[in-house]
Amino acid sequence: MRFTFIDRFRGLIGVMMALGHSNYYFNAAWLSLDPLDPFFDNTGQFWLRYMGYLCAPGFLAMNGAMVYWAYKRRISHGLSHAQASWELIQRGLFLIVMQLVWVNASWSGLARLRLDHFGIIATIGTSMILLTLIVRWQWWQRSILAAALFVGQPFLLKINYDIDGPWHYLNQFLFDAGDFNKYPVLPWFALAVVGSIMAHFWFERWQTDSERANKSMLIGLGLTALALIVRLGNGFGNLFETGDFMSWSFMLVQKYPPTLVHQLWLSGAVIFFVGLMCRIGIHSNIFAFLGIVGKVPLFFYAVHIPLLAIFAKRMGYFYHEGAVKESLIGWVILVAIMLPLAYGFAKVKKKYRKNWFIRMI
Prior knowledge:
Elements lengths: L3 H23 L16 H8 L4 H22 L4 H26 L13 H15 L4 H18 L10 H8 L10 H21 L3 H24 L15 H4 L8 H24 L6 H6 L1 H18 L9 H28 L4 H5 L1
Helix pairs in contact: 1-3, 1-11, 1-13, 1-14, 3-4, 3-5, 3-8, 4-5, 4-13, 5-8, 6-8, 9-11, 13-14
């Protein structure tokens, strides 16, 4: 069973992610922009970068939701806990290998193999594996875990370690951000847990799209309001200064690694936009095209990055030469190329769904 509003939301964050990556390859701002301490010289550059903040939390939350649903569906078909978990663990391991072998190389246009970086896809894979340990917990038990991980993250960041020593690999794997890993497992796993909690309500408790839409948007607004309260109190662990209310500095919450404000703000935004997609879908199919991407998000991710990198970085076309306009033009062309590819692969995946490798993608 497919949930149209989930596919469309995953498609939304997929095309937003493509814009962020087009921005990276075609925008000269990246010659000086430090993702760990970003500075923007105009409003357009700020929003072009900031809109991508929704993508990683969206993918982690959606992955958590679908892990929960896939597990429940397998159990209902007669599989044991071990059998249902093993299928999910296999996919998690596949994602880790894909990060190391394919995704890392994609950023250079497949020019070199790089096995020393643990990125977002590997973190999603690890979160899938960890979710199998708690997938049988009640939703309120998982809520306690997510809250503990949210609040505990700023305290973990107080741990001192030698960034040149061997421990930096473990610390950046678990809670800190650096060259080895910008997406530490614990805080991002917390967002996957949030997705698994919402899955209980989206797929089991709430019976109509109207109920899903209204209650999701209400919960999303509540979490966003809580994030604003924390941010007004200087952010609790956020490295960037608060600044004036709703100014650039106020909006710019720390992402690498994520802090409590980021977790509340972006989990609220994810849940709200899932509800909004559900609400729009009740009245209109205007965003039906997003479901093309949302049905095969991993394929979309794995293909669009090397396309950009080969064209811009390896062939040297407009690499870090433009600004906002060039980033938008590159994005439109990229999406126009990727939509038919995603549509075609969705058909392939449906036809060869029993093939292990195709099923993993």
